[in-house]
Amino acid sequence: MSTVQITAADVNKLRQQTGAGMMDCKKALVEANGDFEAAVDLLRKKGQKVSAARSGNATSEGLVSINVSADGTNGKLLALACETEPVSKVEDFRNLAQAVLAAAVANNPASTEELSAITLEDGRTVAETITELTGKIGEKIVIQEYANISGEKIVSYIHSNGKMGVLVVFEGTNGVDITEAGKDVAMQIAAMNPVAVDKDGVDPATIEREIEIAKDVIRQEGKPEEMVEKIAAGKLNKFYKDSTLLNQEFVKDSSMDVRKFLDNTSKGLTVSAFKRVQLGA
């Protein structure tokens, strides 16, 4: 039982300090016997409990943020996810996304785990800060995706709704300004969602699955068994054309594929890697 009188001013002070709700602040101060630091710790612990309780909840909303270095050789992409669209528009959530991306730029972490362990200016780690905001908002918040990629030239694209982002690594620019062409390719990736840069980059398990599906369809169509392998190979080539970036029909000019478009832009220009993230997909 608290022996210290908790005033409305005390509650408001803690609320301003932590951003937690009025009743939560009052309960924390009562439990902490008026000790502000202990009350802050209690609120943070409440955040941890909220985070654990909501750990299974779907995070289909959020914000995708991108930073490309001034020399264009490195790009970082962050997808900070939450449960509902209104939370993705809250200032605290957007400020958190900005702070986490800034931490990534400053520290150059290679993975989500490394990013989560970075200490921010207030002394808390990225993971602790996310947990605290989870407690404040009462909704699961996670780093859904983080990418850190380098190359000769990085071009980025963020969709207008802020829920999809693309980083593309170009090689063979030969000193040509490929900014506009790069944007076109990034938008192609956003729209067409290729599974790999070229057929050599497709997961062998995906290839095997496509071949088996094709064979089943061919057999159901009553084609002779001696034709199954040949027809399946043709369907696999169609899959490569539809699903690998360089072989896809260029969206802005159907007379050529993306490989040809790049070669027309600068002889030998190609894509070596890309990262596409879409929240809610």
Automatic annotation (TrEMBL):
SUPFAM superfamilies: Elongation factor Ts (EF-Ts), dimerisation domain, UBA-like. Its main location: cytoplasm. One of its GO terms (molecular function) is translation elongation factor activity. Gene3D superfamilies: 1.10.286.20, DNA helicase RuvA subunit, C-terminal domain, Elongation factor Ts, dimerisation domain. It is found in: Cytoplasm. Keywords: Cytoplasm, Elongation factor, Protein biosynthesis. It holds the Pfam family EF_TS. InterPro entries: EF-Ts_dimer_sf, Transl_elong_EFTs/EF1B, Transl_elong_EFTs/EF1B_dimer, Transl_elong_Ts_CS, UBA-like_sf. GO terms for cellular component: cytoplasm. Associates with the EF-Tu.GDP complex and induces the exchange of GDP to GTP. It remains bound to the aminoacyl-tRNA.EF-Tu.GTP complex up to the GTP hydrolysis stage on the ribosome. NCBIfam families: tsf (TIGR00116). Belongs to the EF-Ts family. This is Elongation factor Ts. The gene is tsf.
